[in-house]
Amino acid sequence: MMTFNAKITFTISILIISFLLLTTLNLSFFESIDWVQANDVYSYLKISLSYPQFPHEQIASHFAYRFVPHYFVGFLASFFSIEIGTSYSIVNFIFSFGIIYFSIRTIQAFHPKSKISVLFVLIFLVSPFVLRLNLFSPGLLADTVHIFGLVLCLYAVGIKKIPWLLVGIFFAAIGKQFIILELPGLLFLMSSILKDNQSKLEAILWVGLLIVYTVFLYFGLNYLGKSFADPIAIGFRTFFSFFFWVFSAGFSYRLLFEHFFRLLLPVFPFIILFFGLRNLFQIKRMITLKNIGFLFVFLAPLAYGFLPGPEVQMGNQSRYSSVGLLALVLLLLDMISDFDFSWDYRIILLSIFYLLMHTYHHKYTIFDSVQIVTLSTQLVSYVILYFLLHLMKDNKKPKSI
């Protein structure tokens, strides 16, 4: 990816988010909730509409934990005397823009000369499951805030600045409680920053601080939301329901297949990238502190989408498995050997056509349709992507001697 200054990156980010907004179905705030059955938003509304107090009515404990972004939305709505839906849209837009801007800056920090990284990061940003759903239904703000926090964490590794990592963890923690699942990956990432610049004692102290800081945020947010949380709404067993479901009378192979398919749907383009460029990947590059961290950060939210099983997570699997996709992008780019190719009109046009197919979703793009259309466009996009990769390899520049 070419290195841009902040002003050019800002302009590119505006263009990307404008494309997403212009091609996303436009419904009112409350219509969008019902359209995608995002019923958890109604629990979040109890928080935001209660400002300046906390809700008197109990809500599920895992929703109560995420009160900070929604309480802030309530504050803005009250302070500026605007509708709650408008406040959600504004805050969600700001964080979505931040995800785009810092994703580009992150790729630039790690791979400033990589041309193939342009395709990788665009696949992430225009995915129908990363930003588009939350732009359509901004009440799902917690997802956006969490992804923004993770992107800042990855950016911190790219520029080797620990304060950025701590800021990223803060935003990730107030967005979703599976920050605690991502903690092992974050420890590896922090260690990759420290290994060349700090003594062993200083590195151990920083790692200890990161653990204490993250755990403090996790339990602190749980404690603050305790006054309006229903502690028995979702128990420990719920998070491992997959294993109980497999041995229950409700088990079916159809549901098992659908569970895995939905979970992996956002990942399929990167699987194709891996196999399409398999001769260029060097698996041994995975065994570094940084890349192990990327892998764990990617797998943590995917596990959150998988472990509760289809009876709990049906319809949400793709939301969760897409949360850590930028970490997967960075992992794959770091494993790939030098790959320089010439951009020509065929590659550019085919890339645009692929991204248009890739970004489509039957529920919340402007041309709403039925589910089979999304499946069809995704399958077509996989074929296009595979041919695109072959075209890029045909245009590969020889290494200079």
TrEMBL record:
Keyword annotations for this protein, in alphabetical order, are: Membrane, Transmembrane, Transmembrane helix
Q: State the source organism's domain of life.
A: Bacteria
Asked if the Swiss-Prot or TrEMBL record annotates the protein with the keyword Membrane, the reply is yes
List the transmembrane segments: 71-104, 116-133, 139-157, 164-191, 203-221, 233-253, 259-277, 289-307, 319-336, 343-360, 372-392
Transcription regulation as a keyword? no
Q: Which residues form a coiled coil?
A: none
> What name is this protein filed under?
Glycosyltransferase RgtA/B/C/D-like domain-containing protein
